[in-house]
Design brief:
Low-confidence stretches: 113-118
Mean pLDDT: 77
Strand order of the largest sheet: 1-2
Structural class: alpha+beta
Number of domains: 2
Largest sheet: 2 strands, antiparallel
Number of strands: 4
Distance between the termini: 36 Å
Radius of gyration: 19 Å
Order of helices and strands: HHHHHEEHHEE
Length: 164
């Protein structure tokens, strides 16, 4: 879907028309929150084929937020015994720019590729996820807590900051 969405901005009307047709056949985008949760669950459980699955999914990520989740998950599952997973090293040479970008970002390497992700979300094991809870004593609400999500990044693109 990301490639088809980018094709909508092409100058060739045939490309734009075919991209619209493909997007209509694919249907609406999947729920981003569910996709992000699945990626975080893969990072938490670390199944044997996690690296291959995440690298293969990267070009299909519906937006940058999910792509950053994939990168963060690859940081967690992409290292084995202090060494990068061979599949992650292989993805650095992949022809697909999204696969290359997430692999480089997960390995914390620089790229001259304009599609490379400038920011990489850090996965912090044990960090509490957003939640809302209330405590009641004798059927009366005493305390209500709400925790919001905090994201940590290794680096951010200059576009996130105002220029003087």
């Amino acid at each position: 879907m990301p490639a088809l969405t980018r094709a909508l901005t092409e100058s060739d009307p045939e490309i734009v028309g075919r991209a619209k047709e493909c997007l209509e056949k694919i249907g609406p985008a999947k729920d981003v929150a569910v996709l992000s949760a699945v990626v975080r669950l893969i990072a938490y459980r670390k199944p044997a084929d996690a690296v291959a699955t995440l690298v293969a999914f990267a070009p299909s990520a519906p937006n940058e937020a999910v792509l950053q989740e994939v990168t963060g998950a690859l940081v967690v599952v992409g290292m084995r015994n202090g060494k990068p997973d061979p599949l992650l090293e292989k993805a650095v040479q992949d022809k697909d720019p999204e696969r290359r970008a997430v692999a480089l970002a997960a390995l914390n390497r620089k790229s001259n590729d304009k599609k490379a992700l400038p920011e990489t979300r850090l996965a912090l094991p044990g960090l509490k996820w957003p939640m809302k809870e209330a405590w009641a004593i004798d059927d009366a609400k005493q305390v209500e807590l709400e925790v919001t999500e905090v994201q940590f990044f290794r680096s951010l693109a200059d576009s996130h900051f105002a220029k003087p």
